[in-house]
Structure formats: C-alpha cells, structure tokens
Amino acid sequence: MKLTSALLIIGLFFIISAQTPIFNSPVNIYAGASPIDVGYYGSPFYYDWDGDGTKDLIVGQYSSGKVRFYKNTGTDTNPVFGSFSYLQADGVDISVYAA
Question: Residues 26-43: pLDDT tens digits?
Fold first, then answer.
C-alpha cells in the first residue's frame, strides 16, 4: 500500500510539473544550392559515418526505403553537404521498408 501511494505521488508530481515542449521553426538543410528533399517522412541522422571527425548526414527515404549519405565537407558547426550517394551492402543499395 505504501509503495502504491509513493508511486502515485511521484506520478502526480511529474504530471503537474510537466511543461509543453517549445520547438524552433523548421529549417531546410542544403546540398549545394538546393534544399535536400527525400519526399515525405524523411528520417535524418547526423553522425560521423566515414570516421573523418566531422558529422555527416544520413537520411532514410520512406517511399523507396533507401538510405542517402551526404558527406560533410565543412565542420560540425558549419556543415557543407554536396551530392548524395546511397548506402550499400555488397554493392547493392540498402533498402529498409516500413512494415
């Protein structure tokens, strides 16, 4: 009984103290002079994919299931992306389809 009451009090504390998140306005990410557009439901991930010390852009495409790789030729604070290539395994484009 005491454990249930304690959990209820903790849960109520989190509900009462919860705040609505505030999001910044969306921004476009550019590859050269053009905004990157993978269609709808793009899934971007910022990670040093090639191990060169700067974070690259990996973007999943919902419609085709392919995964794009944009190499960062700038810095982490001022990234510069050019054209993309599809990530491959054994010479075949990786495809991850939604179930």
Answer: 888 889 889 988 887 888
